[in-house]
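Posting for a labmate who doesn't have an account.
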Amino acid sequence: MIRNKYILIAFRLVVGGMFIWAGVSKIIDPLGFAQNIANYRVFPEGASFFLALVLPWIEVICGLSLISGIFRYSSALLLSGFLVVFLVLITVTIIRGIDIDCGCFGSLSGKVDYKLILTDSVLLFFSLNIFFSHKADRE
């Protein structure tokens, strides 16, 4: 794991900024985001609407927390969990042959493809480094 504090700060800015941007773009259009969730054909309709209302706010709060340093380890853990779920969902969607926009950034979202897997994998790497730096802080 990376222990350089300046690199970890950069990771916090990147991951936090991406989740703030993603969350705000979804908050602006919750019905559009609910439709994006429904397009994955994994969640019941009611769950899609609930997720569309709750998930973006969690993304924004965790992103702000990560950048500000308040509860950064908890936020990094939660965002890492989100990224793992997103990676599984994207992979399953590709395997099933469903051609949809990811819904990650509202109207600016791209297609679900292998580039998205790479992007989310890099973000997961950054986020896990932030989380595991907590252990290094205590040593």
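Reply:
Got it, the structure tokens are right above this. The chain has one domain: 5-134.
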